Amino acid sequence: MEHAEFNKDLMEFLNQSPTPWHAVSTMKRRLDAAGFEQLDERDDWSLARNKGYYVIRNGSSIVAFRTGIGDVSLNGIRMVGAHTDSPCLKVKPNPELRRKGYFQLGVEVYGGVLLNPWFDRDLSLAGRVTLLDEAGEVRDTLVDFQKPVAFIPSLAIHLDREANSNRSVNAQTDLPPVLMQVPEADTTRFDDLLGQQVAAETGLKARKILGYELSFYDAQKAAFVGLREEFLASARMDNLLSCYIGLQSLLHTSGDEAALLVCNDHEEVGSMSAEGAQGPFLTAVLDRWCGAGKARAIAHSMMISADNAHGVHPNYSDRHDENHGPVLNQGPVIKVNHNQRYATNSRSAALYRHISDELGLPHQTFVVRSDMACGSTIGPLTAGNLGVTTLDIGVPQFGMHSIRELVGAEDGYTLFRVLSEFMQRKTIF
Fold this sequence. Notes:
Blueprint: H1 3-15, H2 20-33, E1 37-39, E2 52-57, E3 61-66, H3 72-75, E4 78-83, E5 88-99, E6 102-110, E7 123-133, E8 138-144, H4 163-166, E9 178-181, H5 190-202, E10 206-218, E11 223-225, E12 231-234, H6 237-251, E13 259-264, H7 281-290, H8 294-299, E14 302-306, E15 309-310, E16 333-335, H9 346-358, E17 364-366, H10 378-386, E18 389-394, E19 396-398, E20 405-408, H11 411-423
Parallel strand pairs: 1-2, 4-13, 4-14, 14-18, 15-19, 16-17
Antiparallel strand pairs: 2-3, 3-13, 5-6, 5-10, 6-9, 7-8, 7-10, 11-12, 12-20, 16-18, 19-20
Helix pairs in contact: 6-11
């Protein structure tokens, strides 16, 4: 896969994946096209060597793997992990708000959202809907309005003279998006509007909307940015960029060695769920794949947790340790925290550096300032659950947890090349 093709396909993937459910659906289509077989957790499994499989849980998390040609208990598994969710605004169950002739929806903040950039953006809406169809069956479907349908207008500076020095955002009162104007006697129900959209997209006619998990998202598409197009801007770079890199790496391996990609939901809210990294999903898949040889397989294995890193901001360079400020387009970032907020150790970092050096590719290191708190990833959670040697790494970016984020146009492809080599490497340690 060439560099230009990689970035073009990445932007298409980002545009097709406004929610975790859409991201997993997009990955499923690509795995199907590559000949991978879907497994159902409710069925017995009979796994063959030298084949590709995948398992989906809740529609929003996925484990895909190649079984390789050897004995997995002797050769181990080359694992890559990422997460499908991103901070956003989710629609509440009873969301209708009518104020001064405007129809709005109440929203709940999901994850550590950087709220200010959500104002004055063209917003669309997407997610999963559970409904009762005409035949009386309960079923799930995906919905994506795919066009600007809402807006969160800022309060004019004339009405808030301290807006540039002292404006805070109240998540309850300041964030409900405006969808349309309605008459005073309006009785529009959001469920009715949603049912119409489902019918338009899928042909399904809902007797009743039973539930939904819907997120607003930035309707602006991914794009190159910069006079020389050095950067890529998009929503959900954290962490769909890593999902895409992991998927492409798995698809481009030789298939001789056992390799696995896990993309969990709910990382942004702590990962404690049935399909999150603190839950049993990956362990359950490995139990069924490896059987009695699982402990030996894990001892021969390694996990690379890929989640974007904080690039040093030229306007706020003092927020970084002076020797550990990653620069965009200068390579993926090995993330180190000796308090185990990242799972990197000297062995896992050494293997990545060795592969990267062999390929002649750059890499960087991030350590948070000693007087600042450190974020975390699925890395320590997966390492703790499985007992597997783990590396935390990520592409450096600006605007993490904003509605629109920025990465270097070189770094994703660099990480793809290293992970592709890692996933087909005969010997890990």
